[in-house]
Automatic annotation (TrEMBL):
GO MF annotation: an example: cobalamin binding
Domain B12-binding: 539-668
Pfam families according to UniProt: B12-binding (PF02310), MM_CoA_mutase (PF01642)
The family this protein is said to belong to: Belongs to the methylmalonyl-CoA mutase family.
Classification lineage: Bacteria, Bacillati, Actinomycetota, Actinomycetes, Pseudonocardiales
Subunit structure: Heterodimer of an alpha and a beta chain.
SUPFAM superfamilies, alphabetized: Cobalamin (vitamin B12)-binding domain, Cobalamin (vitamin B12)-dependent enzymes
NCBIfam families (UniProt xref): acid_CoA_mut_C, acid_CoA_mut_N
Organism from which the protein derives: Actinokineospora cianjurensis
UniProt name for this protein: (R)-ethylmalonyl-CoA mutase
Superkingdom of origin organism: Bacteria
Listed InterPro entries: Acid_CoA_mut_C, Cbl-dep_enz_cat, Cobalamin-bd, Cobalamin-bd_sf, MeMalonylCoA_mutase_a/b_cat, MMCoA_mutase_a_cat
Stored PROSITE patterns: B12_BINDING
PANTHER family in alphabetical order: COENZYME B12-DEPENDENT MUTASE, METHYLMALONYL-COA MUTASE, MITOCHONDRIAL-RELATED
Keyword set, alphabetical order: Cobalamin, Cobalt, Isomerase, Metal-binding
Length: 673
C-alpha cells in the first residue's frame, strides 16, 4: 500500500475479514463473496491441525478439523482455496506460524500454476505476490500455543523464509510480529511494545548473522518486517501506543541496524481489534467496542494502520455468519469513505497530553527491552519463562481489577440489567456452525490424496527435506519440492519433528499470583477449600487440562493461578493433550476435580472423550467441569453427558468459579454443599 505525502488525502487501508472454516471449497466461496462486497484483502484463518502440523486423520486433530479455520492438508486444498482468485493481484494475510514455510510454499506453487495456465511468466507473477505470513513463533510460546519446534529451529525456519522472500518474493512480508496476541494474554502497552521489539531484534539479528544475504540487502530485509497489533477499547492509550511503536521502531532501525532510508524504517502494521475483549453478555455492546477500537489505529495519520480487520459482534458466542462479517466490513467502509478522517495531517501533533503518554510508554518499553536483552534476548526470555510469567501476572492483575469493579465492563460487571436481544432471537442460528460431516470428509479426502499421488516422489522429497534440515541449507527449496510432490501438512511437519524435536513452553503459572486481591470473598473460598480438604482427609487437588490443539491457554492459566491462590494443589501440564493423557494424569495424581478449557469449538468431541475415559479407568467419580466459548445448547448436551458444571465468558468472577468448583467436589464426595 503506497504512502501518500502529508499534503495528499490519505489512501484507505487494506480492508480484511479474518475468515475460513469447514473446507477449502466453502472458504473459497466465502472469500469471493467478501471480495464482491468491497473487501480489498484476504485474511486466511487456518484450522488448528493445519497450524500445528497435523493431517485431519491424526488423533490430535479429532474434533478440531475446520473449526477455527480452513483445513489445508496439501497442494490440492490450496488450489481449491484460491480458485478463481488471481494471486498475482491479491493481498493475502495468512495467520500461520509454526508451519508458515509450508503454507507459503503451497501459496507460491499455486501462484506459479495460475501463471502457467494463463501463459504468463511465473517468475513475474511470484514477484508480484503481496501479503504476509504471520510467522511470529516467539509469541506462540507466550500466547496462542501453536508452536511445534524448539525456539532455535523455529527461528531458523523464519530466517530461511526471510532470505527466500527478499530474493524471490520481494513484495511479501515474511513475518508479522504480533503484539496482538500478547495483549490477549495480559500484556500492558509497555510489554506489548517491548516484547514485540525484542522479537523483531531476534529475527533481524538471526537473518543478519546467517550470512544468507549480502549486507547491502539488509535494508530490504528491514523493510519487509511487518507487525500485527491489537487495539483495545482504551482507544486514546492504544493510539499513543501506536505512536510509541512507530517512534521506537524508527529508532531501532536507525541506531541498531544503521538503516538510513526512512522508507525502509517505516513501521508497517496491520491490526485486528480486540476479539477476546468482546463479551458474551449483552453482545450488542460489542459493536461500539469494535468501532472505538478501530479509531485507535486510524485517527493518528503518522501511526495509521495500513491493513485492518474487524471481528464480528457475536464472536464471543461462536463463529460469525457472512452477514455478521459484512456488518464488520461496512464499519470500515463508513469510516474510510463517508467521514473526513483521511483528509487531514496528523491531528495529534503538538498535543502535550498525547506526547506525555507516548513518552511514558517509550520509557517503560526501552527499560523492558534492555532487561530482556540483558537476559540474552527474546529466545532466552522465552526459555526461562520470564516473559510468560510477566504476562500471566499482568492478566491476573487485570482480572482482579474487573472482579472488584475497578475496571468497568458494561453489561458484565456494571449496567448488567438487559432486555432480550433481537439479534439473538434466532438462538443457535445467530452464529455459524460447522457441520460435523466436514471432518469426516476431510479425513476421506486426504486419504484419497495420498493414494493418488506419486508415492515415490513424495517420499524422496521428504527424505531430501530431512537431509537438508540436518545442514545449514535454506529449507525453502526442499519445502517447495515437497509441496509440488504432493506431501501433506502432517508429513512435512513430522519430517522436521524427527530432526528438530518438539517443545513444551513454560506455562508461567508457577511464578504468577492474584493474591493481591483485596476482598473477603477470596479468604472465604480459601477457608472453604481448607475445610473441605480436612473433611475429605487430604489437600484438594485440581487438574487443569487443555485437550486437543487449542493453544489459547490464558483462561486455563488464570484458573490455575486462582485455584492455587485459594489453596488447591494444582496439576497443570500445559496445552495440547490427548484425552488419554488427561485421564492418566487425573488418576495418577488422585485429583478431586478435572477442569477442561476449550475455546476452539471442539468441546462436544473433546469433553466426552475425557468423561468416558475416566469412567473406563474406574475414576468416573472424579467430577469434570468445563470452561470455554460454549453455546447454551451445547452446554446442555455436556451437562446431560455427565459434566458437573459449564462456565462461559459471562462467568468472569474467578473466585466465584472457585467457590462453585468446591461445591462440585463436596457434592461428588457426599458432603453438604
Amino acid at each position: 500500500m503506497p504512502y501518500p505525502s502529508d499534503r495528499e488525502r490519505d489512501r484507505p487501508w487494506v480492508m480484511r475479514t479474518y475468515a475460513g472454516h469447514s473446507s477449502a471449497a466453502k472458504s473459497n466461496e466465502l472469500y469471493r463473496r467478501n471480495l464482491a462486497k468491497g473487501q480489498t484483502g484476504l485474511s486466511v484463518a487456518f484450522d488448528l491441525p493445519t497450524q500445528t502440523g497435523y493431517d485431519p486423520d491424526h488423533e490430535l486433530a479429532r474434533g478440531e478439523v475446520g473449526k477455527v479455520g480452513v483445513p489445508v492438508g496439501h497442494l490440492g486444498d490450496m488450489r481449491t482455496l484460491f480458485d478463481a482468485i488471481p494471486l498475482g493481484a491479491a493481498n493475502t494475510s495468512m495467520t500461520i506460524n509454526a508451519t508458515a514455510m509450508w503454507l507459503l510454499a503451497l501459496y507460491v506453487t499455486v501462484a506459479k500454476e495460475q501463471a502457467e495456465v494463463e501463459g504468463a511468466d511465473w517468475h513475474e507473477v511470484v514477484a508480484r505476490l503481496a501479503g504476509t505470513t504471520q510467522n511470529d513463533i516467539i509469541k506462540e510460546y507466550l500466547s496462542r500455543g501453536t508452536y511445534v519446534f524448539p525456539p532455535g529451529p523455529s527461528l531458523r525456519l523464519i530466517t530461511d523464509m526471510v532470505a527466500f522472500t527478499v530474493a524471490n518474493v520481494p513484495k511479501w512480508n515474511p513475518i508479522n510480529i504480533c503484539s496482538y496476541h500478547l495483549q490477549e494474554v495480559g500484556a500492558t502497552p509497555v510489554q506489548e511494545v517491548a516484547y514485540s521489539m525484542c522479537t523483531a531484534i531476534a529475527v533481524l539479528d538471526a537473518v543478519r548473522d546467517s550470512g544468507q544475504l549480502p549486507q547491502e540487502e539488509f535494508g530490504n530485509v528491514v523493510a519487509r518486517i511487518s507487525f500485527f497489533v491489537n487495539a483495545g477499547v482504551r482507544f486514546i492509550e492504544e493510539m499513543c501506543k501506536m505512536r510509541a511503536f512507530t517512534e521506537l521502531w524508527d529508532e531501532i532501525c536507525r541506531d541498531r541496524y544503521g538503516i538510513d532510508d526512512p522508507k525502509q524504517r517505516r513501521f508497517r502494521y496491520g491490526v485486528q481489534v480486540n476479539s477476546l475483549g468482546l463479551t458474551e453478555a449483552q453482545p450488542e455492546n460489542n459493536v461500539q467496542r469494535i468501532v472505538l477500537e478501530m479509531l485507535a489505529v486510524s485517527l493518528s495519520r503518522k501511526a495509521r494502520a495500513r491493513a485492518i480487520q474487524l471481528p464480528a459482534w457475536n464472536e464471543a458466542l461462536g463463529l460469525p455468519r457472512p452477514w455478521d462479517q459484512q456488518w464488520a466490513l461496512r464499519m470500515q467502509q463508513v469510516l474510510a469513505y463517508e467521514t473526513d478522517l483521511l483528509e487531514y495531517e496528523d491531528i495529534f501533533d503538538g498535543s502535550a497530553v498525547i506526547q506525555a503518554k507516548v513518552d511514558e510508554i517509550l520509557t517503560g518499553a526501552r527499560a523492558e527491552i534492555d532487561r530482556v536483552q540483558a537476559m540474552g534476548g527474546a529466545v532466552a526470555a522465552v526459555e526461562s519463562g520470564y516473559m510468560k510469567t510477566q504476562m500471566v501476572g499482568s492478566l491476573a492483575e487485570r482480572r482482579r481489577r474487573i472482579e472488584v469493579g475497578e475496571e468497568v465492563i458494561v453489561g458484565v460487571n456494571k449496567f448488567d440489567t438487559t432486555e432480550p436481544s433481537p439479534l439473538q432471537a434466532e438462538g443457535a442460528k445467530a452464529i455459524e456452525t460447522v457441520d460435523p460431516i466436514a471432518e469426516r470428509e476431510a479425513v476421506e479426502a486426504i486419504q484419497r490424496w495420498r493414494a493418488s499421488r506419486d508415492e515415490s516422489a513424495a517420499q524422496d522429497s521428504l527424505d531430501a527435506l530431512r537431509t537438508a534440515a540436518k545442514t545449514d541449507a535454506n529449507l525453502m527449496a526442499a519445502t517447495l519440492a515437497c509441496a509440488q510432490a504432493g506431501v501433506t501438512t502432517g508429513e512435512w511437519a513430522a519430517a522436521l519433528r524427527e530432526v528438530f524435536g518438539e517443545y513444551r513452553a513454560p506455562t508461567g503459572v508457577s511464578g504468577a499470583s492474584a493474591a493481591g486481591e483485596a476482598g473477603v470473598e477470596l479468604a472465604k473460598v480459601r477457608e472453604w477449600v481448607k475445610a473441605t480438604g480436612d473433611e475429605i482427609g487430604e489437600r484438594l487437588r485440581m487438574l487443569v487440562g487443555k485437550p486437543g490443539l487449542d493453544g489459547h491457554s490464558n483462561g486455563a492459566e488464570q484458573i490455575a493461578v486462582r485455584a492455587r491462590d485459594t489453596g488447591f494443589e494444582v496439576v497443570y501440564q500445559g496445552i495440547r493433550l490427548t484425552a488419554d493423557q488427561i485421564v492418566s494424569a487425573a488418576v495418577q495424581e488422585g485429583v478431586h476435580v478435572v477442569g477442561l478449557s476449550i475455546l476452539s469449538g471442539s468441546h462436544l468431541e473433546a469433553v466426552p472423550a475425557v468423561v468416558e475415559g475416566l469412567r473406563a479407568a474406574g475414576a468416573g467419580d472424579i467430577p469434570v467441569v468445563v470452561g470455554g466459548i460454549i453455546p447454551p445448547d451445547d452446554a446442555k448436551t455436556l451437562l446431560e453427558g455427565g459434566v458437573a458444571r459449564v462456565f462461559t465468558p459471562k462467568d468472569y468472577e474467578m473466585t466465584q468459579i472457585m467457590s462453585e468448583i468446591v461445591r462440585v467436589i463436596r457434592e461428588a464426595n457426599g458432603l453438604p454443599a
